Amino acid sequence: MQRLSSCDPLVTCQQTDLLEKTVDKIVDIVNYWEDVS
């Protein structure tokens, strides 16, 4: 994982936001499958 201070702030913010959204989707999918099974 890159250190936040070593990157351009805008790029880092966008990457972090995208990462959080991706993690949220994965969590939603995992929860869905746990409910289904």
Structural class: mainly alpha
Figure out the total of helices: 1
Low-pLDDT parts are none
Per DSSP E runs of 2 or more residues, the count of β-strands stands at 0
Specify the helix fraction band.
over 70%
Quote the average pLDDT: 80
Proportion in β-strands:
under 5%
Note the main attributes of this structure:
37 residues; mainly alpha; 1 helix; 76% helix; rod-shaped
Summarize the topology:
Blueprint: H1 9-36
Entry summary:
The protein has 37 residues and is an all-alpha fold. It has one helix spanning 9-36. It has one domain.
Describe the protein's architecture and organization.
By secondary structure, the protein is mostly helical. The chain has 1 helix and no strands. It has one domain. The longest helix has 28 residues. The relative contact order is 0.11. The model has no long low-confidence stretch (mean pLDDT 80).
